[in-house]
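Researcher: I need the complex structure. Ligand is uridine-5'-diphosphate-xylopyranose. Inputs:
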Amino acid sequence: MKISVIGSGYVGLVTGACLAELGHQVTCVDVDKLKIKLLSSGKIPIFEPGLEELVLRNVSQDRLAFSSAIASTVKKSEVIFIAVGTPSRADGEADVSAVESVAKEIAKAIKGPSGKAGAAYKVIVNKSTVPVGMGDIVTKLLIKNGVAKNRFAVVSNPEFLREGSALDDFMHPDRIVIGAQDKRAYEVITELYRPLNAHIIFTSIKSAELIKYASNAFLATKISFINEIANVCERVGSDVSEVADAVGLDKRIGRAFLSAGLGWGGSCFPKDVSALIHLARAKGYNPEILESVLNVNQAQVEMFVGKIKKTLKNLNGKVITVLGLSFKPNTDDLREAPSLKVIELLLSEGAKLKAYDPIVKNVDQLKNKGMISLADDPYEALQGSQALVIVTEWPEFTELDLKKAKQLMQKPYVFDGRNTLNAKRVKEAGFKYFGIGK
Ligand code: UDX
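Model: Output:
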């Protein structure tokens, strides 16, 4: 099928490249002309394992192209994915202005007398995470801007892609959710995904929109739950990893997303939990569980830095090493990363920070980037340090040469924000080890 994907960010680019891989004819559109130029020359502006090779292969086989001309692209497409960002406003509400302006652009391009009636039918797919009810808003926008009702349908098809494993998540989904009003649109999208042989859920648009929020909010809840248990563990002498392993063996619970640590960050959980809280409140319901999920998550980082302050006493002028900046391993994404909060709190105490991350080499978005030096390897970052602070559980940190680290550091303190090191080994190497829930 001929497909356009409007918005070539994490979701749009992965969706476009994977749909091309399935054999469709895809054009990814973005308003950012520089990004389109980069992509057309085979340069991928984000770090996502396997994505560069997938894009290059599909571009070379003429199944994937890039353009900043939305009208001409949309005109020749049967299915149009809206995959633009829906960032949080200050009060948590999802900012859907980009979705609305794309919908208007699409209407401008496809309205007016249809050519051959059949070919003119288009399915507009909300891939972006949007508040419940957005499908109706997009439908009304298209009609208001001149598109005849019988020439299109709006579908909600939320994504469940994790950064760092997005391609695999797309090609092997647990389920594909399609929210549609009319059968014809459902059949078009079912046809589009047929090569995946996946379990397809057909539901209403509003249910599909809420399925996305409920899925992310539940995962975030699981994490805040185990972090709460970790805080109890520290006070009663239990070990949260042992607790999580045994609790997770109950197949009704499952071990995934029960790793205690500095909590969740990234571009989705914070945005989606806040948007769902805002939506519930706007409809007159107070989502107490979700508010606690958010509060526990925020407190987790403050408690962790509190441990560092309590141990080192006065941080002023002391060198502290921060290992890991990205919000989780296998990505370069700093959005809402716990590292940003840890850095801000440590700098506010006058600490001198030396950081290392295997992928993140650009810290321009750090507010006080002048006060933090980026090292090329973890040992350079550990030179003269009073504390080794692990914020992101990059696999290479478990291989750290602890003897070498001890020689380089001034004080033997390890604060492990992701319980990623083996506490016994760390203590045997002469360090004082602080984990989460240990
Ligand atoms: C998430 C959802 O998993 C995905 O389905 C959705 O489409 C987008 O949001 P992502 O944000 O990329 O994906 O990362 P994920 O792997 O879910 O981790 C989210 C955060 O939770 C990270 O900050 C991670 O460090 C944290 N986390 C994860 C924990 O703190 N403990 C865990 O056990 C798992």
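Model: Summary of the prediction. Residues 356 and 377 are 6 Å apart (CA to CA).
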